[in-house]
């Protein structure tokens, strides 16, 4: 396989605070605490130009869609528009009174939206540099902005715990959503029809965002005594399973929220990962006690295990779509394959660092892994051999997911990016998806594979169009508690989410609460897609 590694970009004298890809994927712009903007050749990593003009750290950058301009905002409240052809300052936009946190171009490159710590959003005319509108509604720092694909709507996320949607034509607020939370979003799940977004936050709540109605709803299940680390829907959508720091697994009726039977007990440490078999008759779990256990979902009895072999925490488990194999990855840097019928370990593949996420391809022929050595690896299941190594991330890879048709692999990383890879060639399918300002903790495909949802430790959730690579919704924010796990049902139009001590369920179409509130208590980074239903489960640390 051709080596796709690029030499690390070196040149800044301070921390890199922001970066952006040019729309054509040819160039990368980076902004730093040293006040400089540097342009890089995306193919070689060579520095092309240094743009000097800021006197404070550059915290926000965006290319215009027509690639003719670049806008940047700094900690001194100054916004500069650059001519990317002449590589000169085209104009300076002044009006903000504090740090600039976000800048965005409209799809037609005609105007710029900016937001910052002065709690305002400003709309600027690109040609004249005039301030067209000042939106003063947020009560705290505006941390993120996103424009709809047609440019008609602007969404803003703020530390005041709200997401607001604005009409760009009339400069008026269309919708304000109090997220009722105060903590970073770490896990999300997208509905199959794209109508809703499930968001989990650090305050033990989950929210379902209705893309058409703008509604949110909250729901939780009570029973666990400590943090919920992972959740998964049964393939038929009838049940929800949760794994917790209280060392137990619990099963719930999806429609009523009632607990089914007694807890599944046996693990001697946190339960971090669970996954249903394709027929829903068994449930596999991975734990910090370094073991894997298989449970009968009807009797709640352990039917296999404890399967021993890992010498450190088990961070991820998956059952192959054909039900023949189980895969597990852990802090011992191992990927293990198990016979699902006997529990025998049939293969052990070593990684150079923690194996944080494993994912079977929908045809069960391949396994993708995410590793702390910054690489994604694809293995042939039958041959038990490495097929290819996908390199390019510059931080730990936290999550991997196959698209429903097996053609793409999405990876989320601590380098703030999401990458979409061609699963056959191992090459990038498009330029990295950039926008998050901190570690991207999880990714999940919609049922039809047309959308991708990401969650990040920058306290936001974003929705991306897979074909274009554009962010079509978000960033959406919530603040009181990290989301530990979420799962989306395909048989019913609802989402389930878990955080520190709650599981929440919402209706996907009208954004209304499906079940009365039920509490539990946290979760960790794991994701599970049901191949026999329109469901996707994601959990995050």
UniProtKB/TrEMBL annotation:
PROSITE patterns the UniProt entry points to: WD_REPEATS_1, WD_REPEATS_2, WD_REPEATS_REGION
Domain of life according to the entry: Eukaryota
Alphabetical UniProt keywords: Repeat, WD repeat
SMART domains for this protein: WD40
Keyword Cytoplasm: no
Pfam families: Beta-prop_EML_2, WD40
First and last residue of the signal peptide: none
WD repeat ranges per the UniProt record: 9-50, 51-83, 93-134, 135-167, 185-210, 221-262, 264-305, 307-348, 348-389, 390-431, 433-474
All residue ranges annotated as the EML-like second beta-propeller domain in the record: 144-303
SUPFAM superfamilies in UniProt: WD40 repeat-like
Annotated protein name in UniProt: HET-E
Organism whose genome encodes this protein: Coniophora puteana (strain RWD-64-598)
Phylogenetic placement of the source organism: Eukaryota, Fungi, Dikarya, Basidiomycota, Agaricomycotina
């Amino acid at each position: 396989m051709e080596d796709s590694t690029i030499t690390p970009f070196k040149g800044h004298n301070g921390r890199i605070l922001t970066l952006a890809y040019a729309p054509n994927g040819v160039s990368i712009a980076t902004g730093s605490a040293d006040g400089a903007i540097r342009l890089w050749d995306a193919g070689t990593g060579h520095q092309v130009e240094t743009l000097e003009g800021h006197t404070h750290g550059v915290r926000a950058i965006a290319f215009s869609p027509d690639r003719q301009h670049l806008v940047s905002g700094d900690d001194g409240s100054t916004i500069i528009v650059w001519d990317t052809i002449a590589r000169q300052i085209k104009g300076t936009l002044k009006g903000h009174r504090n740090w600039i946190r976000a800048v965005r171009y409209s799809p037609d490159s005609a105007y710029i939206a900016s937001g910052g710590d002065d709690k305002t959003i400003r709309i600027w005319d690109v040609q004249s540099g005039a301030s067209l509108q000042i939106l003063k509604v947020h009560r705290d720092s505006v941390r993120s902005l996103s424009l709809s694909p047609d440019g008609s709507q602007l969404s803003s996320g703020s530390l005041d715990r709200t997401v607001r949607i604005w009409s760009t034509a009339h400069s008026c607020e269309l919708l304000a959503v109090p997220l009722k939370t105060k903590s970073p979003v770490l896990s999300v799940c997208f509905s199959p029809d794209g109508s809703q977004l499930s968001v989990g936050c650090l305050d033990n709540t989950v929210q379902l965002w209705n893309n058409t109605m703008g509604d949110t709803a909250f729901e939780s299940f009570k029973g666990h005594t400590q943090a919920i680390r992972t959740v998964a829907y049964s393939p038929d959508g009838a049940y929800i399973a949760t794994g917790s720091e209280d060392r137990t697994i619990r099963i719930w009726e999806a429609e009523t929220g009632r607990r089914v039977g007694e807890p599944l007990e046996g693990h001697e440490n946190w339960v971090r990962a669970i996954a249903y078999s394709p027929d829903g008759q068994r449930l596999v779990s991975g734990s910090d006690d370094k073991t894997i256990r298989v449970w009968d979902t009807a009797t709640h009895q352990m039917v296999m295990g404890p399967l021993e072999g890992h010498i450190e925490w088990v961070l991820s488990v998956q059952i192959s779509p054909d039900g023949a194999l189980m895969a597990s990855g852990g802090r011992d840097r191992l990927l293990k394959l198990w016979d699902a019928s006997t529990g025998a370990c049939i293969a052990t593949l070593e990684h150079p660092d923690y194996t944080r996420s494993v994912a079977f391809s929908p045809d069960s022929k391949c396994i993708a892994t995410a590793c702390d050595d910054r690489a994604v690896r694809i293995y042939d299941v039958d041959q038990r051999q490495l097929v290819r190594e996908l390199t390019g991330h510059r931080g730990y890879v936290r999550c991997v997911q196959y698209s429903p048709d097996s053609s793409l692999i999405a990876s989320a990383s601590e380098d703030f990016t999401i990458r979409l890879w061609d699963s056959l060639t191992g090459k990038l399918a498009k330029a990295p998806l950039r926008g998050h300002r901190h570690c991207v903790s999880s990714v999940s495909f919609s049922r039809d594979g047309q959308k991708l949802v990401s969650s990040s430790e920058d306290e936001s959730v974003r929705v991306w169009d897979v074909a274009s690579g554009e962010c079509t919704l978000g960033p959406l924010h919530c603040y009181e508690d990290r989301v530990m796990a979420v799962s989306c049902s395909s048989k019913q139009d609802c989402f389930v989410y878990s955080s520190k001590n709650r599981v929440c369920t919402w209706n996907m179409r009208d954004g209304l609460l499906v079940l009365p509130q039920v509490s539990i208590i946290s979760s960790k980074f794991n994701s599970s897609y049901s191949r026999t239903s329109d469901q996707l489960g994601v959990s995050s640390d």
